[in-house]
Automatic annotation (TrEMBL), chain A:
NCBIfam families: gcp_kae1, T6A_TsaD_YgjD. It catalyses: L-threonylcarbamoyladenylate + adenosine(37) in tRNA = N(6)-L-threonylcarbamoyladenosine(37) in tRNA + AMP + H(+). This is tRNA N6-adenosine threonylcarbamoyltransferase. Binds 1 Fe(2+) ion per subunit. PROSITE patterns: GLYCOPROTEASE. Substrate binds at L140, V141, S142, G143, G144, D174, G187, D191, N283. Its cofactor is Fe(2+). Belongs to the KAE1 / TsaD family. One of its GO terms (biological process) is tRNA threonylcarbamoyladenosine modification. InterPro entries: ATPase_NBD, Gcp-like_dom, KAE1/TsaD, Peptidase_M22_CS, TsaD. Residues 29-317 form the Gcp-like domain. One of its GO terms (molecular function) is iron ion binding. The gene is tsaD.
TrEMBL record, chain B:
Gene3D superfamilies: P-loop containing nucleotide triphosphate hydrolases. NCBIfam families: T6A_YjeE. Required for the formation of a threonylcarbamoyl group on adenosine at position 37 (t(6)A37) in tRNAs that read codons beginning with adenine. Is involved in the transfer of the threonylcarbamoyl moiety of threonylcarbamoyl-AMP (TC-AMP) to the N6 group of A37, together with TsaD and TsaB. TsaE seems to play an indirect role in the t(6)A biosynthesis pathway, possibly in regulating the core enzymatic function of TsaD. GO terms for biological process: tRNA threonylcarbamoyladenosine modification. Pfam families: TsaE (PF02367). Belongs to the TsaE family. It is found in: Cytoplasm. InterPro entries: P-loop_NTPase, T6A_TsaE. One of its GO terms (molecular function) is ATP binding. Keywords: ATP-binding, Cytoplasm, Magnesium, Metal-binding, Nucleotide-binding, tRNA processing. This is tRNA threonylcarbamoyladenosine biosynthesis protein TsaE. GO terms for cellular component: cytoplasm. It comes from the Bacteria.
Length: 349, 155
């Protein structure tokens, strides 16, 4: 007997609705993955406004749900469980998704699962590459998160072994892009400019790699400052800033630290699989260097396709399917959103 | 009066002395360019206040609430970098905290957040070419009398 799981995501800018089929043998198949983004509306206001994000989720929710069912060719009554991002994220944005999920679960009389956004970023890989070997290691890199996680059980046991002590990797990209007069978000334009540049042109610092630094934590604030200092010095000398070289050297510093620490963590704990997910996973140098270093260390590398790496509803539906398959208890209908939900809580009880 | 902070540790220590005098309803604006040390300063403020939770850049999440320690008040750490130019009220941030019961520290808030309260302290930070951070305190309203307390705390 197969079951249909609906997933709802609204933790930040994207309103995502995904539908998956959980087969009796535990495999999870993607049926629909619809996303509406409020990024254009934020551009109109010149920045992110939480109120605007919440309102945009509210307006997009029902149309996005309808599109997902149309794409999957299913009627709503086919749904066997509803999963929703309970956190972490923006409070008002999360609330819209949680409220919608409760309403659908109550109306359809099916169980509700409030799940962790970060765990969703890992679970989504199973839609492309099949079941996750456990334990595995996950490197989560996005605009808001930079974390190294040990996954013993995607439905229940995830442990943080390192995270950023200051800026997220994606945030460093955005800020360096601004320094170089490149557009927001900064990842794609820096990646593009870097292709024309020399990654060894400038020796930017590798944060948190000293002998007394936490082995698996990250820091990108000093790198950002070093880039700012280098650009200012060039401008003070009246030189034109060599954007491709700065972009390539910055990107090399980010990819070097991320992959070195991830591979070291896997090797030291005898873990044979590394999953890299989150928006920054789409970066060509990060995935390229990770592939080289994993091959050298004999580690299997799994990077979901870019569409699955960014925020979407499919990742929440996929996580929901694993939670249902594991027989976890559903969340109560008085479930509330938790903007600071720790990654150790996969399902909110 | 400019204060020179040659290392990140000293920026943290300065933040601690500021954090020790903060109370409910206080508004502190941290001004300065990328890499001036605003988040590092906030880490010190959090330590001085005794609040819990790791301080990291709130740019992406816009604001983070750090629960109060045993005898203190919560810290709301806001980053206006990605906010649209109009932060009319902190209520617009959709925070799950009563702001009058917390101390609020806003990075990139200059020109955006001062209208929230006439009583506020601007901490202007800059990074010199030799990497020393230079801090100027600019008190407004009741902070005119309280700003010297920060120096007293530094002892």
């Amino acid at each position: 007997m197969s079951r249909i799981i609906m997933g709802i995501e609204s933790s930040c800018d994207e309103t995502g609705v995904g539908l998956v089929r959980l087969a009796a043998n535990g495999t999870v198949e993607l049926l629909a993955d619809e996303v509406a983004s409020s990024v254009d509306q934020h551009a109109r206001f010149g920045g992110v406004v939480p109120e605007v994000a919440s309102r945009a989720h509210l307006e997009a929710m029902v149309p996005t749900v309808r599109r997902a069912f149309a794409t999957a060719g299913l009627s709503m009554s086919a749904v066997d469980a509803v999963a929703v991002t309970a956190g972490p994220g923006l409070a008002g944005a999360l609330l819209v998704g949680v409220s919608a999920a409760k309403a659908y679960a109550a109306a359809l009389d099916v169980p509700l699962y409030g799940v962790n956004h970060l765990a969703g970023h890992i679970a989504v890989d199973t839609l492309q590459h099949g079941p996750l070997p456990e334990p595995c290691l996950a490197l989560l890199v996005s605009g808001g998160h930079t974390q190294l996680l040990r996954v013993d059980d995607i439905a229940g046991k995830i442990t943080e072994i390192g995270s950023t002590v200051d800026d997220a990797a994606g945030e460093a990209y955005d800020k360096v892009a601004r320094l170089l007069d490149l557009p927001y978000p900064g990842g794609p334009p820096i990646d593009k400019a870097a292709r024309e540049g020399d990654p060894n042109a400038i020796a930017f610092p590798r944060g948190m790699t000293g002998p007394r630094d936490a082995k698996f934590d990250f820091s990108f604030s000093g790198l950002k400052t070093a880039v700012a200092r280098w650009v200012e010095a060039a401008q003070a000398r009246g030189e034109e800033v060599p954007v491709p070289d700065v972009a390539a050297s910055f990107q090399e510093a980010v990819a070097d630290v991320l992959t070195a620490k991830a591979v070291r963590a896997a090797t030291e704990s005898g873990i044979g699989t590394l999953v890299i997910s989150g928006g920054v996973a789409a970066n060509s140098r990060l995935s390229g260097l990770a592939a080289d270093r994993c091959a050298e260390a004999g580690i299997e590398l799994r990077v979901p396709r870019p569409r699955l790496c960014t925020d979407n509803g499919a990742m929440i539906a996929a996580l929901g399917a694993h939670v249902v398959a594991a027989g976890c208890a559903p969340s109560p209908l008085h479930l509330s959103a938790n903007p600071a939900l720790p990654v150790s809580t996969v399902t909110v009880s | 009066m400019s204060i020179e902070l040659p290392t990140a540790d000293e920026t943290v220590r300065f933040g601690q002395s500021l954090g020790r005098v903060l109370r409910a309803g206080d508004l502190v604006l941290l001004a300065g360019p990328l890499g001036a040390g605003k988040t590092t300063m906030t880490r010190g403020i959090a330590e001085g206040m005794g609040v819990s939770g790791r301080v990291s850049s709130p740019t992406f999440v816009l604001a983070r609430v750090h629960p109060a320690g045993p005898d203190g008040v919560p810290l709301v750490h806001v980053d206006a970098y990605r906010l649209g130019g109009d932060l009319g009220q902190l209520d617009d941030l959709d925070l799950d905290t009563e702001l009058e019961d917390a101390a609020v520290v806003v990075e990139w808030g200059e020109g955006v957040a001062e209208r929230l309260s006439a009583d506020h302290l601007v901490v202007r930070m800059d990074r010199r070419p030799d990497d020393v951070r230079v801090v100027d305190l600019e008190p407004h309203g009741t902070w005119t009398e309280r700003a010297p307390l920060v120096s007293d705390q530094r002892g």
